[in-house]
Amino acid sequence: MPDDQPRPTGLLDRLQALLGPSGLLSAPEDLAPHLTDWRGLYRGRAPFLLRPANATELSEAVRLCAGAGAALVPQGGNTSMVGGAVPDESGLQVPVSLARLNRMRDVDPVDMTMTVEAGVVVKAAQDAAAAAGCLFPLSFGGEGSATVGGVLSTNAGGNTTVRYGNARELVLGLEVVLPDGRVWNGLRRLRKDNTGYALRHLFVGAEGTLGFITAAVLRLFPRARESEVAFCAVASEEAALSLFRRFRDRDETAVRAFEYMSGAGVDLVARHVAGAALPVETRAGHYALVDLASSRPDAGLRGMMEAVLEEALEAEEVLDAAIGGSEAQRAALWRIREEHPEAQRLAGASVKNDVSVPVSKTPELMRRCSEALRALVPGSVPVPFGHLGDGNIHMNLLQPEDTDPAAFLARSHEIMDAVNAVVRDLGGSPSAEHGIGRLKAGILEEWRGGPELDLMHRIKAAIDPAGLMNPGKLFPP
Ligand code: 2HG
Ligand code: ZN
């Protein structure tokens, strides 16, 4: 800085000098979208928002904030289901948007990797992979807004976990800005790399409590050359599981997604979402969506789809089925599943329970939870749906029609406890793919106590000794 200019003294001045006018925003209208989560569960306050343009700027900004003891809240697409990316009400936590770190650094169809920055939207990453003739398989409803940094920080799952694993399984390397501002460049693109602790796995799923993921090397796969989607009315939860097993036993590698929907959920979608009518004639209590895909040009997926559905119809597990005959029809079938969160939002207040159990226990989970929830809140509507093929069910509960939404939501913890009692009994997890965030901060004490939680606290203390990274998330404040 030239000598004739005043030297910044306070943190704000220093950050302003470092990041420039587009890198630090403080007008209330600029801050507002970053202070609340999209579900509207939390409304925080903040002195200003940082929007660094690259990892070097972020690293300098983090160093300055660490020196001043300022707490930082990493934010990607702000699509967290658990309030994981918004500051608290103190007005002291500084949100840091990674939206400007949005370069696709490299797509390599020989190594089958792509190197992308944290602010790249998941859909854009999928498109870049497709343009190179490859597939980036992570896929879920929020993919048009969620960012790579966010999905890695939460270890997101989505629809294709059954075939390709969660976000964690897709990461080969990471670049991370640590809480003291140092940059760890671990952007290796190796399939084999046994050089000590696999540090990247600490940052994936850490929900921004250990530092900022700024870029990642992600795995790519061969693109699908054939795909088939069927929407099926099924006889029961058990019939849905049995149908999944029929497909998996026939060809495990072809099952890209297997989703469950309840009759209540499909009815809500038909009622609240334009153009999402039931695609089969039979109105049932349970539905399944199966998505098959193969990179082989001669996979014969239509034959497989028809043969398995035929078997299941004969066994009276499937009551009715519609197979999508074109890309548009396949998308229309998927839409009924993907509109579940939106239909539930339009129908009133919901308590969401993102839980997982061993796949074999999914029917029991849904039955027992639905029964317990109906007894707990008379008139409420259990709406279980989701990723049956990997054991992750969204065991959601919609408010009774005639109740005040706030009174219903005031019972959220009671409702979550009722679900979690069943989940525990079945050997499951109270947080499958959305993370802990603020909504569930504190449950680790109960679910991961003893040496496991002790190790987590020690890791946190070793990497972020001042506790400045995303405080109040994952662990209670
Ligand atoms: C999905 O599978 C998302 O659509 C959202 O994980 C689930 O709204 C939900 O509970
Ligand atoms: Zn989901």
Automatic annotation (TrEMBL):
Gene3D superfamilies: 3.30.465.10, 3.30.70.2190, 3.30.70.2740, Uridine Diphospho-n-acetylenolpyruvylglucosamine Reductase, domain 2, Vanillyl-alcohol Oxidase, Chain A, domain 4
Annotated Pfam families: FAD-oxidase_C, FAD_binding_4
InterPro entries, per the entry: FAD-bd_oxidored_4_C, FAD-bd_PCMH, FAD-bd_PCMH-like_sf, FAD-bd_PCMH_sub1, FAD-bd_PCMH_sub2, FAD-linked_Oxase-like_C, FAD-oxidored/transferase_4, Oxid_FAD_bind_N
Record's keyword annotation contains Flavoprotein: yes
Keywords (A to Z) from UniProt: FAD, Flavoprotein
Keyword Flavoprotein on entry: yes
Domain called FAD-binding PCMH-type: residue spans: 42-223
Family as reported in the entry's similarity comment: Belongs to the FAD-binding oxidoreductase/transferase type 4 family.
Cited PANTHER family: BLL6224 PROTEIN, D-2-HYDROXYGLUTARATE DEHYDROGENASE, MITOCHONDRIAL
Name this protein carries in UniProt: FAD-binding oxidoreductase
Species of the source: Craurococcus roseus
Taxon lineage: Bacteria, Pseudomonadati, Pseudomonadota, Alphaproteobacteria, Acetobacterales
